[in-house]
Write a structure and sequence with these properties.
alpha+beta; four-stranded mixed β-sheet; three-stranded antiparallel β-sheet; 41% helix; disordered N terminus
Length: 251
Amino acid sequence: MSQRKAGLVGSFAKMRQALRILANAPTLALVLMISMADALSAREVQSHGLLFEKWLRDTFFEGYKPKGYTQKWDIPATANKRHGLIPVNPKATKYGTPIGLGDALRQYDIAEPFLLIVGFWQQVTPQEKRWVNVQAVRVEPKVWRTLWGELTRTDLAALEAVIKDKSVTLEQAREKAQQLKAAPRFQSAVIQLNPKIDRSQRRLQCSLRFDAFFDHLAPQADRAVQKTPQIFGVTVPVKFQSALRVLTPER
């Protein structure tokens, strides 16, 4: 038998074995199916935000195309020639929920004015999301710093070190992180710190609550649901086709 045929036979044998395991463990199969569906759905939600960002870049920032995911700003100041010549940070989130800001240390290090554009969407049908509020806010470094309360960069670095310490178990890392977060300095921050600790990641992310965004960064803005949200006088496309992020299995 050739090596190729032998490999195929071995692959089929492994597939049959996996199917027998799943047949004898229907609960496990259901969990795997839901997990796979949820992962696909999460990517669809992410693509919804990416479509919004692309629309912003094409409409207001000369069709700027990011060079990579690790660049400092999603849209650099050089591409923002009509709205302040400052870097731009576009975000998309479900209406009423926190705005994910990304890596906490990177956000803490911001020391220049930037334009924060946030699009809020609602799920109007299982296949359709609709933009219901969009805000573009110029954020000054002094105001940004107040959102961190009494926290120092050293505090954040210490929390990140606990999160990334692989000499302890996931449970121990989570417990230590929560203990640090309970300290008064951490509690003084408006920015929310979100340790991500699981088998695939150990990161320190941060976010800003819906009301905190309006209270601290856009106090004069209308936070209600809008029929035709606009940015810079241009109406945002009402809807994109996208699926729910969280799947609820039928009972």
